[in-house]
Amino acid sequence: MTGGLAYVLRTEAEHILNTEFVQPHELEQMEERCLRGLLETHLTLTGSPARVSLLAMPSLPFLRIQPIHFQGTLEGAWKAAAPRIGDWAAHSRCRRKLFRGATQPCSAVRLSPAESLP
Question: Cα separation of 96 and 50, whole Å?
Answer without folding.
Answer: 19
